Every structure is written in structure tokens, then in C-alpha cells.
């Protein structure tokens, strides 16, 4: 259910901040980082002390290191217990902050800027635009409401979130292309930004895909006949490749025509049989709404969007698939 949201509430928190700590979600993507760095650059321009952080992993994914504003990133240990304004970007729940979640308690005021429908509204001020394709798109609207111009460096960061969260404009929302046009008009190089973020993999990606995709399974009966395609990505499969390579797998698996739902089970690199699970779904060919994987993921302790969601869990592959099928069939 969509609730109204108030851009001016976000503006007044930001406008009166003495200092700002922006927190991105764990295993950050370009939407959370692009949103965080865009906001940081605007605050810095206004003379407001600002830092950006995320709990894990310990390093920014390599594909995002050329984004402007990375000088504002600090390790999680350098985020004080007590901060003035805390802004969480692209986080559907406090749990997405990982070990930095406890900083919510020490904030004078917390502001949640997000576009996940499953958002739990865990801030003092919550500005959640469920219709936005990306948190970056929401940040652009906040900046407009604030009267803060979007310069080329800020546009670079916002484009990073926009292009990744729309899958290179494969699932745009009304306004996505208009925002892209506006960002491109600042002089950014959209082809280069997209290639760096989404279309560049080391050679090791190819043998990794070969191993993982060879194990793909198709269950046509799952989800009341909607079908499920899935793969398991074991820790030994991903040795030597980056998170970007692992995150790319779902985009191949979900193209399977015989299944409306796709799942990729990714084993933690540090803890055996601990998994993060990516789920995807889509509308039926006749336009009937498809399986709501946000609902499925929420029932399994995670969350997300209607057609792109995820959760974390432990167990053997047999446990995992049984747990998912149970929720899909209960749907
Ligand atoms: Mn996002």
C-alpha cells in the first residue's frame, strides 16, 4: 500500500543539519552508493561536514570506485556512536545497515530515503517513494525541492543508481528517461558509466558462469505452475571473482522462459552454508501480475520490490529449496 510522502520533510532535516552521516546498505550496489555520494557532495558544497559509510564488505566494490565523492567514504569503525543527522539511503529495513544499525539510536534525528515497497519506516523521518525506480531518482527530487542544483559530479552518481536499478532501462518507471536526459545534459559520459558498472567483467567470470549455470534446475510446477528456475553458487565457485560477477548471475538465470520466478542462492564466502538469496519475477505475457517475490522474501525474513527481492538464510541446499518452494506454493 502506497503512503504519501513529503519531500519537504527530508529537505528540512537536511537543511538544518550541523553534520550528516549517510549510511548505505550492506553489500552495496550503485544505487545506495550513488545516492549516498550524491548527497555527500551536495552537503559538502554547502559547507556541512559529511561522511558516508556501509558496514560490509570492508572495501567498496571495484566497479564503483570511479564514482565522484568517494573521498567522503569512511570505514564503519570511524562512524561515531552519536551523530547529528543520520541518513539511510536505499535501505528497506534497519537490518540492511548491518553492524551500523546501532547508530540509529545515537542520532539526533534519522532520515530514511528509500524506494522499497517493503520499507519498515525505521527512521524518525521516512521519505519512501515506492513509485521511484531508484533511490537516486528520489534524491534528485529531494535536491529539486531543496533548490540544490545537480552538477556533473552529482549527476554521475545519480545516473549510476538510475542505470543499475532500471537494469540499463529495461524496467524504467514514468520519469526515468526524463531524469536520464537531464543527467546526461550535465555532460556525464553515460556509456562509460554503464560499461564500468554493469558491462565489464574479468576473464574469470566466464569459467565461473560455466560452472554455476551448468547446475541450473527448472521446476515447472513451483508457485502453482508459474515455474521456478534456480542455481546454487557455492563458495568454491566464486573464488577469485568479485561480488559484481556473482551479482550478474541472476540476470542470466531470470531470462528463462519456462519459469516466472528465478532464484540464485549465494553461499557466504566466510561462513559455509550461510546464504543470501536473490529472487526475481515478472508479469505474465498477457499482462497478469506475476508472483510477488517481495512477499515471498518478506515471509523468509528479507524484503525488496515486487519483482526483485532477497533474503538471507542458513542451511543445506535441500533445506533452502524446500523453504523457498513452501513459500512459493503458499503464495
Ligand atoms: Mn535501489
Q: What radius of gyration results from the CA coordinates? A: 19 Å
Bound molecules: manganese (II) ion
Let me know the CATH homologous superfamily of the largest domain: inorganic pyrophosphatase (n-terminal core)
Helix content: 25-40%
> Based on CA inertia axes, which overall geometry fits?
globular
Number of helices: 12
Question: What's the CATH class label of the largest domain?
Answer: Alpha Beta
Into how many domains do the coordinates divide?
2
Describe the overall structure.
- A hairpin with a 6-residue loop joins β8 and β9.
- The protein has helices at residues 7-15, 30-45, 135-146, 152-165, 176-184, 190-198, 205-213, 222-225, 243-247, 249-253, 293-299, 317-330, and strands spanning 20-24, 50-53, 83-89, 107-114, 125-128, 217-219, 228-233, 261-267, 274-280, 303-305, 308-314.
- It has a six-stranded mixed sheet. It has a five-stranded parallel sheet with strand order 2-1-3-4-5, with helices on one face.
- It folds into two domains: 7-198, Alpha-Beta Complex (inorganic pyrophosphatase (n-terminal core)); 205-329, Roll (Diaminopimelate Epimerase, Chain A, domain 1).
- The chain is globular and about 55 Å long.
- The protein has 331 residues and is α/β, with parallel strands linked by helices.
